[in-house]
TrEMBL record:
Listed Basic residues bias regions: 9-18
Protein name: Cell division protein FtsN
Species this protein is from: Aliidiomarina iranensis
Gene Ontology biological process terms in this record: cell division
Pfam families for this protein: SPOR (PF05036)
Amino acid sequence: MAVDYAKRGAPKKKKPAAKAKPAARGATRKSAKAKNGPGVPIGALLVTLVVIALFVAFLWFLKSGEAPDPGVTEQGPAAATEELEPLPEIPAERWQYIEELESQQIQVEVPEQAESRRRLMQCASFRSHEEADNLKARIAMAGFESQIRETTGSNGRWFRVILGPFDNLRDAQRTNNQLQRTGIYGCQIWLWNLD
């Protein structure tokens, strides 16, 4: 069976129910308590009060259980300071090592033969004179004077770029370090034997 909802029409509105009148004054109070629910539980209130009391007792124990200050006696702090011995005076410091260092001299033993012999420094050896000239120009740009020596040996003719003579090994090493800072590496320090 089919129902025609269009012909049925709008649903009928319900009428609101009439409010009940309270019978007596006491009945109104009971119904208000029933609507609000039960009151504060007495057990939770007691537990809260016990916790607060224990916390206060703990704080009181901490305060009264502190160790007494050793500087304070029954007579007061002034009496305690009078009983202590006075501290000794600070001794004057005397720095001896400064005077000792000023008067000391450092002595370095250098073997006289190794230091006093003359040195030369060879920076490269080339087959062509042009390559030797290029290196000589780079050394001149670094601020040092070099020489090109031609040598002929069992393996042919070579052009050696040398610096020196240096009076000692220290001067030769200083020059070599300065050349390395400018990008010229591979110089070797030898004893002078080009007389």
